[in-house]
Design brief:
The protein has 69 residues and is α+β, with helices and mostly antiparallel strands. The protein has 4 helices and 3 strands, in the order αβααββα.
Length: 69
């Protein structure tokens, strides 16, 4: 999956699987990091019980290097 494909999705949040495809990481790695050390990911996450979602707009900005010092 590419950033353009993610951007075209109608959903406002992404799954760990979608993000992992772009980052070329295992989705369980993303999920574990989101639960244990979300501040180290570089983009915000929403963790609710066993569910993890990533705000699409924030993830796209992170991947494009926008808004970073």
């Amino acid at each position: 999956m590419t950033l353009d494909e993610l951007e075209a999705l109608p959903e406002e949040t992404l799954t760990c699987q979608q993000v992992a495809q772009v980052l070329r990481l295992d989705q369980d790695t993303i999920r574990g990091q989101a639960r244990d050390y979300p501040e180290l990911l570089g983009f915000p996450v929403i963790v609710a019980a066993r569910q993890v979602r990533i705000p699409k707009a924030a993830f796209l900005r992170f991947m494009r290097g926008e808004g970073q010092a």
